[in-house]
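Hey,
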Amino acid sequence: MSDDYLRKKAAWFRRVIFEMLSKAEQGHPGSVLSLAEVLVALFYGGVFRFENGNPLAIERDKIIISKGHATMALYPIFSDIGYFSSDELDAFGTPEGRLRIFGNTTIPGIDATTGSLGHGLGIGVGYAIAAKYDGLSSRVFVVISEGEMYEGSIWESALAAAHHGLDNLVVILDRNRKIILGDTEDLTQLEPIADKWESFGFETATVDGHSFSELDAAFSRIVELDGKPIVVIANTVKGKGIPLMEDDANWHYWQSIGEDEVKCIRAHLKAVEDSIQ
């Protein structure tokens, strides 16, 4: 797919996400918006294997948003590929709707109930082992946050993944540098991140998480893996695409904003989308 097509999809994604968040007046915008290009590259760039309208296809790839507060990032895409009606997006976060702030396995396409940080990778390792045991070609993609790297369960899972040679496991680190309390390097330093994962037996690729060409180059390495899992370290901007929210830890959670600000953001997102041919 062309970069313009993918860029337009990312702009569409951000516009839909903002409408969902502003209507529900709850959610985690910063952590969702930073994932736009990553998820668009996966689902619309020909990387992630799925069947339109069939979330239970046996050979489809699996995806787990281990940072469960960002699971809603999958909802517009799952609606777009026919897993459920777009009407569900309008009911996001309401008692009447099925789409929760934190995803769970009652939602078509959601492969793991997440929310307790650090647990998603262990589930993904289990799925990857099971796929190999069953002789399936499906891969498992697990999106983690850098805050999850503070959790011991992440590293226990990493050890298991390398030990079992899970070359069907792709970890994507959303490296936006921000957790609830601020910048990770000011709180508990994580760098050098690539060296840490390599020491645990992973292949690594460090990319600009908003560059489709760099994401494509990293994801193209999946077919070349031989007995090793890979982690794609995607350097991103928290709240990317909405200037009010960009690189601001306060927008980990939805903040109260006035109708004039909502209109301005809405107009900005629409203008960005319309500017892409």
